Here is the input.
Amino acid sequence: MKKVYFDNAATTQTDKDVAATVLEYMTNTFGNPGSVHAFGREARKAVDIAREQVAKLIGAQSSEIFFTSGGTESDNISLKGVAYANRNRGKHIITSAIEHHAVLEPCEALKKEGFDLTILPVDEFGRVSVETLKAAIRPDTILISVMFANNEVGTMQPIAEIGAIARERGIYFHTDAVQAVGNWPIDVKAMNIDLLTMSGHKFHAPKGIGALYVRKGVRIRSLQQGGGQERHMRPGTENVPGIVGLGMAAEKSLAEMPEKIDRIQKLRDRLLAGIMENVPEIKLNGHPTLRLPGNVNVSVIYIEGESLLLNLDMKGIAASSGSACTSGSLDPSHVLLAMGLDHATAHGSLRLSLSKMNTDEDVDYFLAEFPAIVARLRSMSPLYATRGSQAAQRCESASCKESECEIRGS
Ligand SMILES: *Cc1c(COP(=O)(O)O)cnc(C)c1O
Here is the structure.
């Protein structure tokens, strides 16, 4: 059976060249960068080169890059590190309703510690309004955290505008750019970004490696004490294989970027057009144009996303759903709800996320299988038979506490 991987927003396949380099730095070149001997010096040199490669990808200086274990850690260091270091200047933090849990939960934790939190709403496309942001700013606002591109619906935020406002008001601006780094051009200087989160496994580097960009001069405190690695920001022996892999993935994605965006976008557009043409009652979620090149998110009305995923999986197709909850509960995605979707529509959401590894054959195969799966599920669906009225009732009664739910679709 053919296998199609359309879940690249959850994780990507490690690039073959990257994997070869990672292996080299686990076997032959295995020194500790902190050691003074030749083995150590060789590892140190590799880490320095990787730092330059990562910096170049986002227009930063290499001294502004800190290696971490990934997106979640970089988000935590940004939010808590800036909050703790600047509490004498103010206690107000602004974020948005569609952030990843790696941002929302540290924000909620800070609120419990006495910080004030404003969570900006989004429009029907998942975009933050710059005017609403401006109105939310207070004299004691110290940090704005708005993601670059959303992991569920792919919507891109007005990052440069937000950066300009934050800079003008003297407020730090952090962006979780995990979904955008390597997939979309980023220039932290031009966009006035003070802190940026990235994660290797979302752009063909291994899992468990990421980086945090901190603009020179930003007041931030590290959350961990130990050795002096990463200039005390993130102590602990460096993950040299991961760091070298991240560097290579950064360099490759920068070189591939324009051609890659074009190719993935064409595949995505054909996939979406094929779905729209061949399956009735589909709603596109997210912005029609201001979205990541590889993201498709649709609601297949009257069907549970979960049953779609299972049926696609039986055909070898990996996708994700905004209603996928590992606990088996029915709580729909906070992103889709923030965009104003009703529970029934949110439950029917399907995310297909493409990467440079996908091909025309993948799209053909999906389009050949998908309409029949939807038709069969709808024919069995009591929701489809009663067309909506019952669906709304049923889903509103299905409640689930946030804490019971794991992060869906990462
Ligand atoms: C995947 C993801 C994260 C978490 O990154 P990890 O490296 O898996 O910890 C954070 N934010 C966004 C937007 C993501 O997509």
Observations:
- The longest strand covers residues 295-300.
- DSSP finds 13 helices and twelve strands in the chain.
- The pocket of pyridoxal-5'-phosphate is lined by residues 70-72, 100, 102, 147, 151, 176, 178-179, 199, 202, 210, 410 (CB under 6 Å).
